Amino acid sequence: MNFDLEVTQLLLVASSGFVIPRERLKDRNNTLEPGHRPKRRAGGAIVANHPDVAAFLGLADTIHQEFKLPLKAGSFWALVQPSVQYQKLLRPAGVELSALGAIPDNMITERFFDILRNGLAHGNIFVKGDPNREIASLTFGQSVIRDSDDYEFVTLSVQDFRKLLLAWFALLLDEGLASGVKPTKQEATD
To answer: Which of 51, 58, 62, 154 has the fewest C-beta atoms lying within 10 Å of its C-beta?
Structure first.
């Protein structure tokens, strides 16, 4: 089978299986934080969570707990650590780009996943080939500030991105994470 076709399929699965759950389970209003203060829009209206946060509160809380950890201290680090790179750059015009720096020690897991989600959702994905002209790494980007040309990029090997997605799906399917954090079975309470 053509490896590049496998990578295309991997990105298709990630586009729906990662982007949509990540967006819908995002705690926009800090409702999962003890003593939270609601976020408000300019006119004063409270920023509402997607209804899936309430419907899958156990899962949303598990994701929230994991995403507040520094990436290097969380369950996903061991999966991406072999290949992950990070860099701030101006948005490039070409299609072949790789981030070339270390992940900052203070990067929160949520920030890392937001860069991946944004890259997938908005087409900020760059590929780099190996000597056999097969896709070897994927780079995802997100603008630092809306409507800016300053971007943050994360590069992963295809294999590490696949491992990350499998761990994400395990979390969504209630199988827990390497840290031992496990969500509550949603269907058991419905």
So the answer is: 51
For residue range 25-44, what is the model confidence (pLDDT) as tens digits?
877 766 777 777 777 778 88
Residue 160 near residue 84 (C-beta atoms within 8 A): yes
For the whole prediction, is pTM greater than 0.85?
Answer: no
186, amino acid identity: Q
Three-point CA angle 88, 94, 99, nearest 5° = 30
User: Can you give the residue range of the structural domain that contains 72?
Assistant: 3-181
140 in any annotated domain: yes
Q: Of 138, 119, 128, which is closest to residue 80 (Cα–Cα)?
A: 138
Residues 80-92: pLDDT tens digits? 999 999 999 887 7
Domains identified in the chain, total number: 1
Q: How far is CA 128 from CA 24, 37, 136, 187, in A?
A: 30, 43, 6, 41
